[in-house]
Amino acid sequence: MFSPHPDDDVLGCAGILAKHVINGDAVKTVYMTDGCHCYSPTTVLSKLISIICRDKFPSPEELIEIREEEAIAASRELGISKENLVFLGYEDGSLSDNVETATKRVKEILESTNPHLIYLPHKDEDHVDHRATYNVLENALGAYSSKVSLRQYQVWVSLNEPDITFDLKDLVHIKRKAVYKHKSQLRVKVVTELFKKVLNSNFEYFKSKNSFAKSHL
C-alpha cells in the first residue's frame, strides 16, 4: 500500500486492507509525505481554515509527529503493526519535486519486499501529492522485474467505472475506527466532509492494472 499522506490509506482502502490481514496476507504501508502542511497558509484550504477554526493549530513540526502517531494508531485498527509501516518523510506538497529520489527509495522497498499486489492512488486524483505518488510508482515499477498486480484507489475523486467493488460488510466499524484515529484532520471542515462521505459508503472501489510497461521509464 502506497499512501500519499498519513490518512489516505484508510480513507481509500481500510476495509480491503483489514480483509487482507484477516486472510493472513502480509501488509506493508508506505507513507510518501509527512502531512505537515494540512493547516499551512500555503495550502488551498488556508482561507477556509482561518474562518472555521480560531484556536491555534499545531506547527508543521508538531504535525509531523502527530500525524505519524495517528497513522500508527489507525493501522493498528486494521491489524497492521508499526513494524510494517514506512514513513518516507517527504514534505507535504513537495513530492512532485522529489520524484527521482522517491523513485529510488520505492525501488529499494519493492526489491526488499517483493510484493505481488500494490494499492496506489488513482492517476486522476485531484491532489499534487496523490498524482506524484502514482508517477513515482509508475517509474519504479517500470524497471521492476517481478510480476505485480496494481489496484488504483479513490480518495478525493470518484472512480469512473471501477472494475473492483469491495463490500465492507462487517468491516465498516473497523474502517470507521481507523479513519477517526486521524483526529487532527477533524479540525479542517473540507476534510471532515470527506470523512463523512467515505464513511457513508459501504463499498470501496478500485481500478485494476497488471503492471507498468518498461517503456514508461
Topology record:
Blueprint: E1 2-3, H1 8-22, E2 29-33, H2 46-52, H3 60-78, E3 85-90, H4 99-113, E4 117-121, H5 128-142, E5 149-153, E6 164-167, H6 172-179, H7 189-199, E7 203-209
Parallel strand pairs: 1-2, 2-3, 4-5
Antiparallel strand pairs: 5-7, 6-7
Helix pairs in contact: 1-3, 1-6, 3-6, 4-5
Description:
The protein is an alpha/beta fold. It has helices spanning 8-22, 46-52, 60-78, 99-113, 128-142, 172-179, 189-199, and strands at 2-3, 29-33, 85-90, 117-121, 149-153, 164-167, 203-209. The protein has a single domain, classed as LmbE-like (Rossmann fold, 3-Layer(aba) Sandwich), CATH 3.40.50.10320. The strands form two sheets. Strands 4-5-7-6 form a four-stranded mixed beta sheet. A three-stranded parallel beta sheet has the order 1-2-3. The longest helix is centred in the N-terminal third of the chain and has 19 residues, at 60-78. The protein starts with a strand and ends in an 8-residue tail after the last strand.
Brief rundown of the structure:
This protein is 41% helix and 16% strand. The chain has 217 residues and is an alpha/beta fold. The chain has a four-stranded mixed β-sheet with strand order 4-5-7-6.
